[in-house]
UniProtKB/TrEMBL annotation:
SUPFAM superfamilies: Acyl-CoA N-acyltransferases (Nat) (SSF55729). One of its GO terms (cellular component) is cytoplasm. Residues 12-184 form the N-acetyltransferase domain. One of its GO terms (molecular function) is protein-N-terminal-alanine acetyltransferase activity. InterPro entries: Acyl_CoA_acyltransferase, GNAT_dom, N-acetyltransferase. This is GNAT family N-acetyltransferase. PROSITE patterns: GNAT.
Length: 185
């Protein structure tokens, strides 16, 4: 097992999921403000525990062991932690989005309704983008946001993503964005 990774993003830090994050993650993904924009995010507490133990935490270890090339790396799941209090206020992750053309690694994020409009999503997304471009061989990252999700589209634009077009995924209309390492630097 590799060392745990922390990404300092200013007012928030990104850190790998811990089993004790399940309740906070469950509460966040149960908020309509989150699950209306992230298909499949809503789950029971029991499902969350199962996913955390059997998929998300093991996936983090697989991701780290695949660095820097990221061959066969799936998802990397990180909590957004308010630095001042240590509170788990959201999540930020990266994974393969099969619906996108290759290279199809994307980032995603969500923040508690209680912590919105404070810039935390932008800080977290920028922190993850910077880490991926500085510490891995990735050259291009993707992101998708429902066309109706003005806040997420704004975050992606603030992070330097460029609109690549629109795409339909599971019946929803999404804006598809990309950012390249050379443009990030």
């Amino acid at each position: 097992m590799k060392k745990k990774i922390l990404i300092d993003c200013g007012e928030v830090i990104l850190r790998e999921y811990r089993i004790e994050d399940v309740q906070a993650l469950y509460e966040i993904t149960s908020q309509p403000e989150v699950y209306e924009f992230i298909p499949g995010a809503q789950a029971t507490l029991e499902q969350r525990v199962d996913w955390m133990k059997n998929y998300e935490i093991p996936a983090n270890e697989t991701f780290k062991s695949s660095m820097p090339d990221l061959k066969d790396a799936g998802f990397w799941n990180l909590g957004i932690i308010l630095k001042e209090t240590g509170e788990f206020i959201g999540f930020c992750n990266t994974g393969i989005k099969d619906e996108l053309p290759e290279p199809n690694r994307e980032i995603g994020y969500a923040i508690s309704k209680h912590c919105r409009n404070k810039g935390y999503s932008t800080l977290a997304a920028k922190g993850l983008i910077g880490f991926l471009f500085e510490k891995t061989a990735l050259e291009t990252l993707n992101a998708v946001a429902l066309t109706s999700n003005a806040s997420s589209n704004k975050v992606l634009q603030k992070c330097g993503f460029k609109l690549a077009g629109e795409i339909e995924i599971d019946g929803g209309q999404f804006f598809h964005y990309t950012i390249r390492k050379r443009d990030w630097a």
